[in-house]
Amino acid sequence: MNMTKRTIVALPGDGIGRHVLEECIRVLDKAGFDASYVEGDIGWEFWKSEGNPLPDRTIELLEKHKIGLFGAITSKPKDAAFAELDPGLKEKGLVYSSPIVGLRQHFNLDVCIRPCKTYTGNPLNFIRRGAGDSIEEPEVDVAIFRQNTEGLYGGVEWSNPPDIVYNGLATHPKFKKNFGTVPREELSISTRIFTKKATERILRAAFAHAVKFGYKSVTVCEKPNVIRETSGMMYKMAQEIQAADFPGIELWNTNIDAQMMWLTKNPETYGVIVAGNMFGDIVSDGFAGLIGGLGFACSANLGEEVSVFEPTHGSAPKYADYSESIVNPIAMVESACMMLDHIGEAEISGRIRSAIAQVIMEGKVRTYDMMKMTGRADVIKNGAASTRQMAEAIIAKL
Ligand code: IPM
Ligand code: MN
């Protein structure tokens, strides 16, 4: 059976993105994933030179091939970004915005999945005190479902808001007292909009995942006691969906603040967690910290047509120019495994994951983060594995 060969859009992005992506593709090749790769331009370089970190040609590549494998991106605040723009573009009124957020919006990649699963033997695993003086190492196996396009990331925001917004506040019986008397130049507003359609999609995706992978519970992690409309709607819809279609899955409800505390008390209790955009961002970093930090945090951004897979670490620009890359490629390789699962290549992803598990369990090859070193050029001299060596170790176990 010879199906047409897949083309994957490789999006290295900034800084160490290119290093981890290159090593990841070597692992994929060696694992027998038969694909070709086209490179899409994205990131800081293209902001500086073209005033657009997400050029149309990259959008077109993704439209055509549907699957993107993304390295990492640098994000800087508005003013810092403007300062680095090509002088010839400075008069054009361009404003930097994160191209990964741009991709999520453009292709409506509204379902974000961030699994956080303990690897046995990872020296970075979270430990806690148990009874007496015992040390416990809880096994975390959580899948976070983050709504990826709306909420605080929806982009509906203003400083010095226009009439229609300002007057809406100033004339509203409830809002005018606190905000209607503030001079408008002193107001900044970022909205948190949830739609039923997107909320239902993330909830259903979360429940379906629980059924498919045998998790007993889905936890809605929001703040419905205070944010009554959006968080409240999400929880109410979760109750309805659970009752109608997923009676075998327990529905739990936590507040984001309490969840961040319980994270270190009973992380093994949770299964699937579902949240809006900002809280999903927060809780996914929290759980990632329990399983080894950003070097292990992978993600999938799924749309109905296009999907993009990325490690959730940043671009670590300070490490980007080392003669030998030191960063841990596992988050990138794990993200590629999510891609493989998504396109029906679970046999290959299964083999890669078990190779990673063996390398971690053996403990002979460890990147600097796993050796609890500070990231510096000399970590390799001091016994840490390079990005390349970690990839080689994984390949050797395939
Ligand atoms: C993430 C990151 C991004 C986000 C940043 C880089 C825009 O933190 O993917 O979690 O906030 O979504
Ligand atoms: Mn984040």
What does this structure look like?
The protein has 398 residues and is α/β, with parallel strands linked by helices. The protein folds into 3 domains: 1-109 and 319-398, Isopropylmalate Dehydrogenase (3-Layer(aba) Sandwich); 126-151 and 194-290, Rossmann fold, CATH 3.40.50; 157-190, no CATH class. It is 39% helix and 17% strand. It has 14 helices and 14 strands. The structure holds 3-isopropylmalic acid and manganese (II) ion. The site of 3-isopropylmalic acid has 6 residues, from helix 5.
H/I helix tally: 14
User: Any idea what the CATH superfamily of the largest domain is called?
Assistant: Isopropylmalate Dehydrogenase
Number of strands: 14
Shape: globular
Query: Could you estimate the helical fraction of the residues in percent?
Result: 25-40%
- Oligomer state equals single chain
Secondary-structure-based class equals: alpha/beta
Uncertain ranges: none
Which small compounds were modeled alongside the protein?
A: 3-isopropylmalic acid, manganese (II) ion
Order of strands, main sheet, comes to 2-1-3-14-13-4-7-12-10-11
- Tell me the Rg in angstroms: 22 Å
CATH topology value of the largest domain: Isopropylmalate Dehydrogenase
Mean pLDDT: 96
CATH architectural arrangement of the largest domain: 3-Layer(aba) Sandwich
The first-level CATH class of the largest domain is given as: Alpha Beta
Number of domains: 3
Please provide the ordered H/E string of secondary-structure elements: EHEHHEHHEEEEEHHEHEHEHEHEEHHH
